[in-house]
Amino acid sequence: MSDLQINTKLPLRRNRPGSKAKDWCHWPEETSENMDSLYHIQQYIQQSIRRDSSDIDFILKAPDQQDEGVWKYEHLRQFCLELNDLTVLLQKECLPETCSQMTATEQWIFLCAAHKNPKECPAIDYTRHTLDGAASLLNSNKYFPSRISIKETSIAKLGSVCRRIYRIFSHAYYHHRPIYDEFEGRTHLCRRFTVFALRYGLIPKDNLIVPIHGVNQDITTIMHQQTSPIKAHSNQSLKNGDSPPSPTVAATQAESDA
């Protein structure tokens, strides 16, 4: 049998021009070990989401001996990618005239750290600035020159990104509930993010103000749950920076930490 004949028996993992939505990425699943790519962790996470976006434990279950820092980094990249879809939906009604501040309930007001001195921004601008800033950091050659191995000092920056992008969920939930409900019903993204943040201690539990049934009510179990063998770094503590401990106006320091 010729090489050409052998190759034709392998599944072609490529989306052809003109592919319909139902056929997008419609190919047999692979194990993480069989994925031959520098971006195989991203591919594995996205494959797990396509398999069943509601199966949070499966999506967050790391392959055996997976580096914990890389696993957290790749999940955070994926959260930012998917939050762009929520941002597009919010643009329809989250207008500067009606949402002149980034708020969550009547008790939380967040200052935007995208400016030289953190200041108030319309909610939709805060959302765009936050996702742009997260993308800039996560794609920075200075802090993340490799997607195979990540320095502990760079991993410590993930907590700050998590806290900021979580505010997009909280604003959507408390001020644009129909949009949030429709999006969450399809993607289960806030539930996945909340479990992820609790599991790795990336956001103080008091700051997780969007109620997630079966998650917020059982924070202790989620924080101590171990889903698979995972290669942890020697220093488990993340420098999350200071966060407002009670539902008051968010302090500038909480927005401007590295």
TrEMBL record:
Ranges annotated as biased composition (Polar residues): 227-240, 249-258
UniProt keyword annotations, A-Z: Metal-binding, Zinc
Any Pfam family hit: Mob1_phocein
Domain of life: Eukaryota
Binding site for Zn(2+): C94, C99, H171, H176
Stretches for region Disordered: 227-258
SMART domains from the UniProt entry: Mob1_phocein
Ligase listed as a keyword: no
Protein name: MOB-like protein phocein
Organism: Rotaria magnacalcarata
